[in-house]
Design brief:
- By secondary structure, the protein is α/β, with parallel strands linked by helices.
- It is built from eleven helices and nine strands.
- Strand 6 and strand 7 form a beta hairpin.
- The protein is globular, with a radius of gyration of 22 Å.
- The structure holds iron/sulfur cluster (2 copies).
Length: 324
């Protein structure tokens, strides 16, 4: 059996997705028997010219992590698309925009001024911000362009499969590795390697009707949650009810609420709106015994609505900002 040719690449991401491949443990040692890595610049000494030199569609699968923020990332995403027969968006940044996508709350110039001029740790009296082209001593220096917004991979190129997670769990990565042969062989494979049901179905925490008795919402650091009971019932905003399962309940098992890195559920169009709507329904139940103002106070406890409800998904949301 011929080995599956793989190309890995990354865009706007932290590098954790590349490291997560190693989370499969000893199984990674078996990979050379089944896959042939032809490009992986983070792990091996590949340069972009190596990718450019490959024949179009000569690579079976391109696995891309990271969102698209710069012109270089956009060019490389298009190169991967040209060279690979199938493309997998790997990790929450590639699938939904991820943490880098929270920058879409601000305009491009606002971000540059904050990073290069206003941040308290800066010394930049000339107020210089990053330039795509700068001339100095007769030389022209170029940098990738900082694009107006963060985009998901499938907003830039066609994507065949999605592997969500920040990073994907070991079980999800193992499923992907076991599926590579089928993808390369053109067999029918799930488009999204995650559960179709919400995380609450696999969450080990007990659920009761006590949510109606919670009188306020807490931020995770404001109380030590009961490790056995549903976090939402204790007043901690947990997005498990609006998030695909498949991660192994990693955060809730560590007494932290789910923030939605496995993405929105099937048949929903906006992850944050879905979560807010469900939470508002819970708050509505409190109206029987709380004055209306108290309900607003409860909702005010969500200090950072975008950061809470769109932690990993802002670029994929219907919610749009004014472009700067
Ligand atoms: S809301 Fe969170 S803690 Fe509660 S059952 Fe769902 S995943 Fe578990
Ligand atoms: S609990 Fe939620 S945020 Fe945490 S890994 Fe699972 S899907 Fe991601």
């Amino acid at each position: 059996m011929s080995r599956v040719k793989l190309a890995f690449n990354w865009g706007a991401s932290c590098g954790g997705c590349d490291v997560s491949i190693l989370d499969v443990g000893r199984a990674v040692l078996d990979l050379p028997q089944t896959v042939d890595v032809v490009y992986w610049p983070v792990a091996l000494d590949y340069k972009r010219k190596d990718l450019e030199a490959l024949d179009d569609k000569s690579v079976d699968i391109g696995i891309v992590n990271g969102a698209v923020r710069t012109s270089e990332q956009e060019e490389e995403a298009k190169l991967i698309r040209a060279k690979c027969r199938y493309v997998v968006a790997y990790g929450s940044c590639a699938c939904f925009g991820g943490i880098p996508g929270l920058a879409n709350q601000f305009g491009r110039n606002e971000l540059l001024e904050r990073a290069y001029i206003e941040a308290p740790s800066n010394t930049n009296e000339a107020a210089v911000t990053v330039q795509s082209v700068s001339e100095r001593d007769g030389f022209s220096l170029t940098l990738p362009e900082f694009l107006p917004e963060v985009r998901t991979l499938d907003q830039v190129i066609e994507v065949n499969h999605f592997v969500p997670g920040c990073p994907p769990s070991t079980a999800t990565i193992t499923e992907l590795l076991e599926t590579l042969g089928a993808i390369a062989g053109g067999k029918t494979v799930k488009r999204i390697l995650a559960a179709d049901k919400c995380l609450c179905y696999e969450c080990p925490r007990g659920k009761t009707k006590e949510a109606k008795k919670a009188e306020k919402l807490y931020r995770p650091h404001e109380l030590i949650a009961d490790g056995e009971r549903c976090l939402l019932e204790q007043g901690i905003v947990c997005l498990g009810f609006a998030t695909r399962g498949g991660c192994g309940s990693r955060c809730v098992a560590a007494n932290m609420p789910c923030r939605g890195c496995y993405g929105r559920l099937p048949d929903t169009s906006d992850p944050g709106a879905e979560a807010m709507s469900a939470l508002a329904a819970v708050a509505g139940d409190w109206e029987d015994y709380l004055p209306t103002q108290k309900i607003f106070d409860v909702l005010d406890a969500v200090r950072d609505a975008v950061g809470t409800f769109y932690t990993f998904s802002l670029p994929s949301a219907l919610l749009k900002r004014e472009r700067g």
